[in-house]
């Protein structure tokens, strides 16, 4: 929804999915799989792979779908700008404080801050404080909040904001006093902010 195939500027719908070592990285792997199913051409950069069996299984699924993995992230930003239509930021997410200043996350964030193609952040933009918002992190064009928008989403100034949370059980919604949006038809994602 964030970047429909016909709207992409290049003939090939290439997307770079940058995955961190924790939960948000696993979500990035799932995202790459979905992108492949919907005819995009994802490439994954996953430098610090988790030993967790679930994450290993997600990696194997991506490999079996012939999704290529980069062995390094080019520090020459123009190479990324020229090769891809967009970048999916699945580096840190809500667990950002665990790795923001450590490698390889610090180098990844330094590179992502300088690219010109659109960035789609999953849940919490990498480098952002979950509650306070940006503190020198990246500036995504699109934010996809998972379950519900986090407090930091109030400071999001990008083009579009989506929430993916239809899967939340009613008791969880009630416990956390969540007021989810209406999901039309069978949609699992809904736009909270119209495109600018």
**CATH topology grouping:** Rossmann fold
Radius of gyration, CA atoms, in whole angstroms: 16 Å
The major β-sheet equals: 8 strands, mixed
What's the tally of helices? 5
Helix content: 10-25%
CATH architecture: 3-Layer(aba) Sandwich
Which properties best describe this structure?
single chain, 196 residues, Rossmann fold, two-stranded antiparallel ribbon, 10 strands, 24% helix, globular
SSE topology:
Blueprint (H helix, E strand, L loop, with lengths): L13 E6 L3 H15 L3 E5 L7 H12 L4 E2 L6 H7 L2 E5 L14 H8 L6 E4 L5 E2 L3 E2 L7 E5 L13 E5 L5 H6 L13 E5 L3
Parallel strand pairs: 1-2, 1-4, 2-3, 4-5, 5-8, 8-9
Antiparallel strand pairs: 6-7, 9-10
Write up this protein.
By secondary structure, this protein is of the alpha/beta class. It is built from 5 helices and 10 strands. The chain has helices at residues 23-37, 53-64, 77-83, 105-112, 170-175, and strands spanning 14-19, 41-45, 69-70, 86-90, 119-122, 128-129, 133-134, 142-146, 160-164, 189-193. It has an 8-stranded mixed β-sheet with strand order 3-2-1-4-5-8-9-10, with helices on both faces. Strand 6 and strand 7 (133-134) form a beta hairpin.
């Amino acid at each position: 929804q964030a970047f429909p195939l016909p709207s992409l500027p290049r003939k090939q719908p290439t997307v770079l999915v940058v995955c961190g070592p924790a939960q948000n990285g696993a979500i990035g792997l799932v995202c790459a799989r979905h992108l492949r199913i919907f005819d995009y051409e994802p490439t994954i950069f996953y430098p610090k792979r988790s030993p967790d069996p679930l994450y290993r299984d997600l990696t194997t699924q991506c490999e079996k779908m012939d999704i290529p993995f980069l062995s390094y992230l080019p520090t020459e930003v123009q190479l990324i700008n020229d090769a891809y239509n967009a970048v999916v930021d699945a580096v840190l997410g809500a667990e950002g404080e665990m790795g923001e200043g450590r490698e390889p996350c610090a180098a990844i964030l330094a590179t992502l801050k300088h690219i010109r193609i659109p960035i789609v952040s999953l849940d919490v933009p990498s480098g952002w404080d979950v509650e306070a918002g940006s503190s020198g992190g990246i500036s995504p064009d699109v934010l996809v909040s998972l379950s519900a928008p986090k407090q930091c989403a109030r400071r999001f100034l990008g083009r579009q904001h989506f929430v993916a949370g239809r899967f939340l059980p009613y008791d969880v919604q009630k416990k956390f006093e969540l007021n989810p949006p209406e999901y039309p038809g069978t949609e699992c994602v809904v736009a909270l902010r119209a495109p600018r």
